[in-house]
Amino acid sequence: MHRLAGLVAAISLAGCTAIPDARPPLDSGVVDQPEPIPADTALAATLTAGPPIETMPFVDWDAGSALAAFKRSCDKILFRDDVSGLTRRIDWQAPCGAAANWSGDAADFFRAQFETVVVGDGSAFATGYYEPEIQGSRVQAPGYEVPVYAYPEDLVRAWPDDMPEAERTGRPPLGRYNEEGEFVQYYERSEIVAGALDGKVPVIAWAADPVEFFFLQIQGSGLLRLPDGGVMRIGYSGQNGREYVAIGRPMREQGLIGDGTDYPTSMQGLMGWLRDNPTRADEIMNLNKSWIFFRELDTEGPLGSLEVPVFRQDSVAVDPKFVPYGAPVWLDMEADVADGLWIAQDTGGAIKGANRFDTFWGNGADAREIAGGMSSSGKAYLLLPKGTLARLEQ
C-alpha cells in the first residue's frame, strides 16, 4: 500500500497486541511534497468554510460508493475520540443515523448532512496504494521459500533499563529481551532474512518471490494466490520497530534508477532493477530495516487502521491529526482519476500533516499501475457534520 516516484503510503498498523498502528510508508524519496502546515492538529490550523455543499459536483456512482464506505465507518467513529479536535462523537450521530436508513440519492445525503471545510489553504498532495497479489502457499514447498511470519511472542514494548525516567514519555519502544535479560532492539530485516526467526516464530504462509513480498510488506496487506487457485488474504499485524528506509532515494543516488538508466523512478522501475540484479537485491532491500508481520484475514477487503475493510476508490489514508476518521473528503487533483469523494479509513507512516492523502486502488494489474504512478497535487475539502465550523469558531 503505500508510490515510488510518488508512491508513498502505505497500508497500517502495529503493536504487540496485533492492533493496527500505522501502515508502513512506501516512499521513493524522489518526489517533492508541499511544505507542511505549521500546526500539530487540524484544530490548531487555519480553518475556513469551503464552497457551499450544494455546489459540489458530486457524481451519482461516486457518491453511492462513498455512502456505503461511510456506513461501514459509523460503527467505529461513534465510539472513538477524534484526535484532530474537529469533531466529537455526538457530531457523527446525525449523519450516521441518516446513513443507516437513507434510501434517496446518495449525493443528496452528503448535501443534507455535511458542510465543506478547508484546512490551511487546502493545497493537497495525493499518492496511491493498492493490495498486491503475489504467488504463495500455505505450506513450504519447492518454489515457495519466503516465510510470511506471524507476530512474534518476543516482540514487546518496554523501556530500556538505561533510559532515565524523565525520558520515558509516550509509548515504550518495540524490542526484545536478549538471553542476558536486557531489552534490546528487535532483529532488523537483514537478520530476519538470514534466519534469525527460523523455528522461533510461526509461519502462516510462504511466498514465492522475495522481491514481490518486499513490496507487499510495504503495502501492509495483500493476497496470496495459492497453487490450487485459491486466495489467502493477509493483513498487517505488526512491525519490528526498526527504521523504515525508502530504497528509492539511495538507488537513485547510486545511479541505479532514474535518468540515464533503463529503470524509471517508479515502483515498476525499482522492481525491475531488483529482478535484473539478483546478487545485489538483498543488499538494497536490506537498507530498509523494517519487517512486517501478518495475520490471515477473512474480510471482504484489507483492513485499514479504522479496522474496517477498505475498498477501491472509496478509502483514503490520512493523518488522523488533521482529518477525522470516517470523514468524507473531496479531492480535486491534477490526476483526474483521483477526483471525487473519499472516506478517511486508514493511515500510513508517510502520511503526515494537513491535506496529505493516500488513495486506495484495490487489487489487480490496473490498481498496481495507478497506485504506482499516483503523485498529484490539487485541492482538498473536508466534509464535516453541519454546524461543526460554527461551533469551532465560538
Q: What is the CATH-assigned architecture of the largest domain?
A: Beta Barrel
Radius of gyration: 21 Å
Detail the poorly predicted runs: 1-32
Strand content: 15-25%
Shape: globular
CATH superfamily of the largest domain: RlpA-like domain
Number of domains: 2
The pLDDT mean sits at 89
Task: Give the strand tally.
Answer: 17
Quote the distance from N terminus to C terminus: 40 Å
Q: What's the story with the biggest beta sheet?
A: 6 strands, mixed, barrel
Topology as H/E string?
EHHHEEEEEEEHEHEEHHHEEEEEHEH
Spatial ordering of strands, largest sheet: 3-16-13-15-14-17
| Annotated CATH topology of the largest domain | Barwin-like endoglucanases
CATH class type of the largest domain: Mainly Beta
Overview of the molecule:
The structure is a single chain. This protein is of the alpha+beta class and 394 residues long. It folds into 2 domains: 42-130 and 304-393, RlpA-like domain (Barwin-like endoglucanases), CATH 2.40.40.10; 133-243 and 288-297, Beta Barrel (Ribosomal Protein L25, Chain P). 22% of the residues lie in helices and 23% in strands. It contains 10 helices and 17 strands. It has a 6-stranded mixed barrel. A hairpin with a 6-residue loop joins β14 (328-333) and β15 (340-346). α1 (60-77) crosses α3 and α7 (267-276) packs across α8. The chain is globular and about 60 Å long. The protein starts with 46 loop residues before the first strand and ends with a helix. Mean pLDDT is 89; it is low at 1-32. Keywords: Cell wall biogenesis/degradation, Lyase.
